[in-house]
């Protein structure tokens, strides 16, 4: 059983933390009362994104003040690495361990979750240093529902995208994994980057603002009073409390 006797949990995360979230996602969050969460690069706060080879290059990233404003509305923050490099045994100390100190200093807050950048090939080397770095959880790109006894160092996330890359081309599904989460009493963590009205910036990395709206409407309609809408940091904290009882 989850907090306040809720039967399942819904969270959503936005990798990179683009400033456009304020314009194209925050109003939808406010309308439905869903808290958000941004996974930020420690080296990229309040700047135009400057990461070699990034498909979001040049987009403004949320500033500390904007992140604090979101925090007051229940949003959380995790660390997405220092530079978005693929993580291996050689750079894990810098990308996973040192970056946590940098982002905690920049935001003056504790960052409990590491969010694996690029793809799951970065996961093993991230996991190897996560405990040493002081993280209590890792968010991955394994597309799965989490449960209350889930391995916190391997949290799955569900891609909330307009269309999948080849060879699947799956189209947007506002019900994706929700009934599975209801059956299991589980926890869905959606992820995308920066929703935009009408057309996704990258259809296999994003949804549109309209699809985001449809997703939240569906979560509330099928979830009713049973769903706990929560920032992942809060859910991790709750799970840890439950386990220490
Ligand atoms: Zn990323």
How are the SSEs placed, and which strands pair?
Elements: E1 8-15, H1 21-24, H2 26-32, E2 37-40, H3 64-72, E3 76-79, H4 92-107, E4 113-115, H5 123-133, E5 137-139, E6 158-159, H6 178-184, E7 187-192, H7 209-223, E8 227-229, H8 232-244
Parallel strand pairs: 1-2, 1-7, 1-8, 2-3, 4-5, 6-7
Helix pairs in contact: 4-5
Residues 15-16, 80, 84, 117 line the site of zinc ion (ZN).
Describe this structure in words.
With 245 residues, the chain is an alpha/beta fold. It has a single domain, classed as TIM Barrel (Alpha-Beta Barrel), CATH 3.20.20.370. Helix content is 33%, strand content 13%. It has 8 helices and 8 strands. Strands 1, 2, 3, 6, 7 and 8 form a 6-stranded parallel β-sheet that branches. Helix 5 links the parallel strand 4 and strand 5. The longest helix is centred in the middle third of the chain and has 16 residues. The two termini are 14 Å apart. The mean pLDDT is 97. It binds zinc ion.
Shape: globular
The fraction of residues assigned to DSSP E strands is 5-15%
**Which superfamily, in CATH terms, is the homologous superfamily?**
Glycoside hydrolase/deacetylase
The largest sheet, given as strand count, sense and whether it forms a barrel, is: 6 strands, parallel
Low-confidence runs: none
Terminal CA distance: 14 Å
CATH A-level architecture: Alpha-Beta Barrel
- Mean pLDDT reading: 97
């Amino acid at each position: 059983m989850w907090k306040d006797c809720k039967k399942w949990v819904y969270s959503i995360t936005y990798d990179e933390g683009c400033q456009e979230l304020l314009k194209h996602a925050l109003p939808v969050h406010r309308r439905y009362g869903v808290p958000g969460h941004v996974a930020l690069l420690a080296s990229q706060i309040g700047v135009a994104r400057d990461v070699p080879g990034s498909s979001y290059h040049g987009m403004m990233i949320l500033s500390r003040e904007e992140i604090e404003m979101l925090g007051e509305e229940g949003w959380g923050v995790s660390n997405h690495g220092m530079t978005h490099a693929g993580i291996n045994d050689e750079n894990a100390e810098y990308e996973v361990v040192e970056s946590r100190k940098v982002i905690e200093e920049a935001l003056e807050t504790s960052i409990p979750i590491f969010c694996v950048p690029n793809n799951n090939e970065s996961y093993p080397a991230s996991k190897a240093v996560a405990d040493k770095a002081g993280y209590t959880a890792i968010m991955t790109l394994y597309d799965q529902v989490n449960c209350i006894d889930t391995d916190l160092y391997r949290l799955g996330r569900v891609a909330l995208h307009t269309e999948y890359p080849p060879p699947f081309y799956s189209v947007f599904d506002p019900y994706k994994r929700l009934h599975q989460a209801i059956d299991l009493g589980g926890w869905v963590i959606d992820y995308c980057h920066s929703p935009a009205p009408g057309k996704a910036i990258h259809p296999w990395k994003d949804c549109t603002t309209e699809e985001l709206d449809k997703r939240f409407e569906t979560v509330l309609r099928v979830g009713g009073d049973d769903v706990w809408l929560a920032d992942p940091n809060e859910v991790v904290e709750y799970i840890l409390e439950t386990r220490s009882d």
